[in-house]
Design brief:
There is one protein chain. This protein is an alpha/beta fold. Helices cover 51% and strands 14% of the residues. The chain is built from 15 helices and nine strands. It has a five-stranded parallel sheet, sandwiched between helices. A four-stranded antiparallel sheet has the order 4-5-3-6. A hairpin with a 2-residue loop joins strand 4 and strand 5. Helix 7 runs antiparallel to helix 8.
Length: 330
């Protein structure tokens, strides 16, 4: 399928789109699917090269797992995080060949590492090292620190925080995703207690446990955080070439020491995604493109910033739509 600009489109429309302030946003764990990245790798050598580099660095066929599964193996934390990183960076490289470069970037949880590659804070090889360690340590912590997560829809933040504060055990708001969509994380009994309280308030259908292997972005990930710190300290970070908004604060960071500290904190602290999107929009960004598998983040943009544009790129078809809108036409 051709991914060049549609012939005959009004020049004024194309000019307006080319002048749009654009942000790339990168998905996190949960967006994986068998087959992700396969179309782009077949169609574009630059995408295939990213998968080949990852396979060589990891010493195993991660590309085969992404393209062919099996699903049960792909969704294991130690595989999922690497797979989404590699697929997202491969998609990023294809977009770059069409001259589509963002003004700002951000990533949801794991996706922050893809954003750091896009902003040239991390070399791809170092991102692989960090995510490999992060995923392994988080999976290990999930096995030793029994925890879970749950999505709570349509509840005010203050009320949910009150439920967490009064629960007997460790539980906190882990993801502030968008207005009306929060995620809690912590010990199984404490999460179940908060879910029970929330169901009584907003109804059973608006509260659901998530199929995760651990209590991510909660104090139960502290063992993973401590082990990860040594690996993080061994990697060189470069000053960002693009504006990058970080999960822990929801604001832009420019200093590499601050970025390193925030990456360390991110494992146990909440993802301030709603604030991240607002920070990017307040900088003058009008459109967002989700780069990598799935379109969850594009949906969160629409709910948080209804006046903003939101697209996603994960295969040849969605690439065509985005290049029609933002490509340089060359």
């Amino acid at each position: 399928m051709s991914v060049s600009k549609t012939e005959g489109a009004p020049p004024t429309t194309i000019h307006r789109k080319k002048m749009t302030q654009l942000a790339f946003i990168f998905p996190g764990q949960g967006s994986q699917r068998v087959g992700m990245g396969a179309e782009l790798a077949r169609a574009y050598p630059i995408a295939d090269a990213v998968f080949q580099e990852a396979d060589a660095a990891l010493g195993r066929a991660l590309s085969e797992l992404c393209f062919e599964g099996p699903e049960d193996t792909l969704k294991q934390t130690e595989n999922t995080q690497l797979a989404i990183l590699v697929c997202s960076v491969a998609t990023l490289r294809v977009l770059e060949t069409f001259g589509i470069v963002p003004n700002a970037v951000a990533g949801h949880s794991l996706g922050e590492y893809s954003a750091l590659v896009a902003a040239e804070v991390l070399d791809f090889s170092d991102a692989l090292r960090l995510v490999h360690a992060r995923a392994s340590y988080m999976a290990e912590a999930g096995e030793t620190q029994q925890g879970t997560m749950a999505a709570i829809l349509g509840m005010e933040t203050d009320q949910l925080q009150q439920f967490c504060d009064t629960a007997d055990g460790i539980v906190n708001i882990a993801n502030y995703n968008c207005p009306g969509q929060l995620v809690i994380s912590g010990e199984v009994a404490a999460v179940n207690r908060v879910v029970s309280l929330a169901k009584a308030e907003i109804g059973e259908r608006r509260c659901r446990l998530l199929p995760v292997s651990g209590a991510f972005h909660s104090p139960l990930m502290a063992p993973a955080q401590q082990k990860f710190g040594a690996v993080l300290d061994s990697v060189t970070l470069h000053p960002p070439k693009l504006d990058i908004a970080m999960n822990v604060t929801g604001t832009f960071a420019t200093d590499v020491d601050d970025i390193r500290r925030l990456l360390f904190q991110q494992i146990t602290q909440s993802v301030q995604w709603e604030q991240t999107l607002k920070t990017i929009a307040e900088s003058g960004i009008t459109d967002f493109v989700e780069v990598g598998p799935g379109k969850v983040l594009a949906g969160l943009v629409r709910r948080t910033l209804p006046e903003s544009g939101a697209m996603n790129v994960e295969d040849v078809k969605t690439l065509s739509v985005v290049t029609d809108a933002y490509g340089d036409g060359e």
